[in-house]
Amino acid sequence: MADLLSDIEIQRELGSLPGWARRADVLTRQYSFRNFSESMAFVNKVADSAEAANHHPDIDIRYSKVTLTLSTHDSGGITQKDIDLARAIDSEKD
Fold first, then answer.
1. Do 9 and 79 touch, CB atoms closer than 8 A?
2. Terminus of the chain with fewer CB atoms < 10 Å: N or C?
3. What is the pLDDT of residues 19-41, one digit of tens each?
4. Contact between residue 64 and residue 36 where contact means Cβ atoms under 8 Å apart
């Protein structure tokens, strides 16, 4: 089980993760694309990163909008695993 990050650690990390926000015990971000095909291509890249990290986001797909939610469920909140995956996901967007 991974250690939970403190409120200060989470805020510090969010400063370098534009677009990500904290909602209680999760990190979330919405990405926008031109169409469904682009959304799905992005989701497939996210799936590869998540599998490599063995840490999987909740994914909500609404045509051209993809919302990701990260939390380390077995730890009960936000851990470094969530921050690391958020960074990896952001690199997939480009």
1. no
2. C
3. 999 999 999 999 999 999 999 99
4. yes
